[in-house]
Amino acid sequence: MDFERYIRDIQDFPQPGVIFKDITPLLKDPQALVQACETLCGMVKDYAIDKVVGVDSRGFIFAPLIASKLNAGFVPVRKKGKLPYKTISESYSLEYGEDTLEIHTDAIQKGEKVLVHDDVLATGGTANAVCKLVEKLGGEVVQCNFLIQLTFLNGADKLNGYDIKALLTY
Fold first, then answer.
1. pTM above 0.90, yes or no
2. Per-residue pLDDT for the chain (170 aa), expressed as one digit of tens each?
3. Which ranges carry the Phosphoribosyltransferase domain (predicted)?
4. What DSSP assignment string belongs to 26-73?
5. Of the residues 5, 95, 98, 112, which is catalytic?
């Protein structure tokens, strides 16, 4: 399937100079949504995944679907102050600012195999912070899985050593 035709560019969002990759056209098409999920799951290969970590907020769209297909649990990583139980946090830089992510302290057990999923790999700060959170809890990140990778922002450099897969690359 030509997934690229379901991604639209939004100029100057969320700030001037940024070209935002809008995935909502893909999400509203049932066939494209199902096929994207199947393709993302197919990228996991032979890994036995215990948990799929979805990143706030668009990572929450596919991560639970992928977890269900892989017979794994889903773990949300959220922006600071959004999770109700005990958390650990990691601060990071992103393309247009700084932020902090949190994960519940009981979300991942030592030795669990973890797939990290988010919608876009841009500068890599978000995904790197998530990998650090997983590893602080004793989990093993076996793959970072994205709907879109923006290669010109060199985000993969911050994920050196991790297996990175993306449905689309720009």
1. yes
2. 999 999 999 999 988 998 999 999 999 999 999 999 999 999 998 889 999 999 999 999 999 999 999 999 999 999 999 999 999 999 998 666 789 999 999 999 999 999 999 999 998 999 999 999 999 999 999 999 999 999 999 999 999 999 999 999 99
3. 31-148
4. HHH-HHHHHHHHHHHHHTTTT---SEEEEETTTHHHHHHHHHHHTT-E
5. 95
